[in-house]
Amino acid sequence: MKTFISLLIGCSLALAGAAMAQQPNEEASPGKKKKQGAEQTQGPGAKPAATAAKSQGAVKERGARNEPGTMNQPGAGKGRKGKATQESASPAGRETNVSGQPAASATPGAEKQRKGMKGRAAKTSPAPAASASAAPSVSATGQAKGQANVGAAAKKKPEPQQVQQIKAQHANFRAQPKPQQVPAVTFNQNYRIQGSERWQGPQYEVFRVYRPEWHDEGWYRSRYSRVELIGGGYYYWNSGYWYPAWGYSPSAQYYAYDGPIYVGQRAQPPDQVIADVQAELQQMGYYKGEVDGLLGPMTREALTAYQADQGLATTAAIDQPTLDSLELSS
Q1: How far apart are the first and last CA of the chain?
Q2: Is 35 helix (H, G, I), strand (E, B) or coil?
């Protein structure tokens, strides 16, 4: 009995010693237990967390050093400091890698989007001023030509000395009838000067109220101090104007124009004044006909163009504002 108890005690001591010997080894490697516990938790085939973190860090490091589109040169991308310096040295708005080459976009389609934005900016940006001035529109060109023509026609009036020369040249001028070149007008007691009702101002009053009248020589002589044969017809003078004396002499009734002709208070003969006007309009490029002292269609057309350019009423006649503008008033 004693022997059995002694064996039992000895076995117990042996087991206790073995247990105490195994405990320090397990306590010396606590990480192994944790690792084994993690592997058991994650299941078979799962990567340890440390390994996954390390792998992810390696990918980031590899992406930082070798971005898509870069050249794998030795020493490329040594640290973020060198990369930042090189990027700051590149032009604004242009991405470059450490080798100095343009970096490809990290996102697929980004380069295409950037090109599209540049294209839209080019379309919406205004055209350079040089191109607009180099190719003027048809309407702008036509307007410039029209202004140039007006300026060329009225570019320069004769100087006062030239005006005096013109007047001296026609001091003894006498107009001659030219019915073939300048047809005569006929008497019409219902005739009214066309458009005269729109001409505003006292200087156009005589044109608004003008009515042709047929009277004999005695009637005219009893009322007007001057009645003269001028250019194939008789005219009477009244308050600065010459008027056709219809009926004064049935054999001398050639009139190129039926209406008042302004000459001023000196009662200068109308054919001389008409010749002065024709010569001056000829120098300015308005009148292309002959200086004949007859107020025919070509002379009236030239007067209309000149009056329009000067902002005057287009009477197609020699009136006071027109003669003053031409500096031919006596």
Answers
A1: 175
A2: helix
